[in-house]
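Figure 2 data, in text form.
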Amino acid sequence: MTEGSNPEDEALLEALDLDDSFSPVRTLAEGEAGMTELVVRREPRAGEPTLLVRKRMPTGLANERAWHALREVAASGAEGASRLPRVREIYRLPDALVVVYDFVDGPTLAQLVRDGGPLEAGRAVLLVRQLCQALAPLHAAGVVHRDVTPGNVVVASDGAHLIDLGIARVRVEGATHDTTRLGTWGFAAPEQYGFAQTDARSDVFSLGRLLAYALTALDPSGAAFESAADSPQVLASVREVINKATAFEPSARYQSVGELSRALEAACPPQPSPAAARPAARPAASVPSGGSLRARFREAAVPAASPAELWHAFRSAGVGERVACVLLALFAALGAALLVYSSILMLGKSLLDTFTAVLCLVMAAWFALAFGWEPACCLTSAGRYAVPGGRLGTLLLREGAHLLRLVVAFVAIVLVVAFALPNC
């Protein structure tokens, strides 16, 4: 620090330099609680994963004490700490608190249920018990997560991981209620809406609701969710645990996540047999985007990356990747332009020529996508290619899905021509 300099100004300059040392890959989430991005360091550090998560939270909502407590818990090596985000950086900008932590690869619980439906009881209970392991050291440090939802649970190859402490808070002795009343409707405990101060029992409530969701796939915003635990799909013993965990009055719930975990173990004992263990291995690391193969083909209809995401990834890529992307873009543009020109020449000459022109336009779109956009996203790890390894597999799967759609379009046009020509 130079003589006469302002410590606050020096700290801000350091924070700005640190913030600029990361390159955005893609936006994971954005809302009133802040923005979450997938990022990489411009200068990677030894022993640190390539992909990191950067979360920006408005100053008025962020609880810096909770994040520092999480950092200490994750570094302590306590049981369950490995299922919490490992914080790498915490710094303040003029209008936000920024936290950078390790990215965990795998589908969220919300994606698993959406793509595959309700989970088998043993698997759902195991995931919730793993979340109890994650929350135990956090609660011991006085931190309440307050947003235990399916979207904040990543199911990796080693089980459940709890992420996103954006609205976590440190319990304050003597307080009558939380100062910030945020939470996800359907999963947040009643006291989060001003009835009382939140504590470990608030997360117990959320875990009970989350288990009911995993077992029934019912939307928590719907009226049917209120009786989700009464579904025939839920074992009677597990139903009792859910009902107690989600009691309106905190004193009527399990008083700790350890107590909840033991109750779940008794209600649905682990099944060590291979047949029971097989479903738990579904979200393997070889399926980075989560869900079944059918779900991944369906996901291929979603663009690999937005133009902004590809541009950010292109800027942070190496010289070789940039040159390859430019060459691919020129090749794809030339091929697509020739197909479009051919369609213009044939358009309107005859009915058959018109249908052929339409096919050329479809092929032009496919050519630009298959030989330009997708390979460029793959080379730069942009958007859905931002996964640690497996980029080639993702490319092949997406290219296969695009080719299948082209074949379907071709068959459809041929059938239309075959039907239309005899009637002309």
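Caption note: The chain has a mean pLDDT of 82.
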